[in-house]
Amino acid sequence: MGQLWLVRHGQASFLEENYDRLSAKGEAQARLLGEYWASHRLAFDHVFSGPRVRQQDTARIAGEAFRSARVPWPAPEVLREFDEFQAEAVIAQALPGLIKTEPHIRDMYQEFEKAKGQAARFKTFQRMFEVVIGRWAGGELPLAGIEPWPEFCERVHRGLRLLSQNGTRGRRVAVFTSGGPTGIAMQRALGLSTEATLKTAWMVPNCAYSVFLFSGDRFTLSSYNSYSHFTDRDFVTYR
Predict the structure, then answer these.
(1) Strand, coil or helix: what is 48?
(2) How confident is the model at residue 163 (pLDDT cuts 50, 70, 90)?
(3) pTM, whole model, 2 decimals?
(4) Most buried of 97, 118, 186, 224, CB within 10 angstroms?
């Protein structure tokens, strides 16, 4: 059977003008992951990433650690099927109307606006984010110009099928992606509902990895949410 090592990207630039860029901590997380894998002499037959800068840069930095340790690292290829869902666009388009019509969402937004310090802002934003994204994924918020949740799910499932049909049988494959596609992989392995899939995705720290076994139509979870490469808890981030 093949092995799929699915990695969430390092910490991105939350609340900055360009979110799709690794923060300094995100770069360090990617480096620690690469050094940890290289120290265990992991050999990957294929490396892929989603198309986002944060996904590609996580793969690149991990690869630099492999090359520094003189451990082989295949040239990463981009698979657009492992792009994240359009979370920023969902929030930008849906939130203004929800603030006007939903008192509990308005309260959460005001709490976020008043929050002091990065940790408090992360926490209050995540609470609001989960409610809005949950409503959207559940079909309650049809939004123009945004890939719907069912289409996102099918896209990632298509990517997972491609891996098992594209010369990777019996190989070890790394894919650098985001929390959403990781949740969809868990959905495929365990038959999760939409709600459970989202909860699973939100539990994935930056630069954590999960391992799946695949062969043809078989797709099985081997391990979930590994981040033993972080000996300092300060590197365990979720946003």
Answers:
(1) strand
(2) confident
(3) 0.92
(4) 186
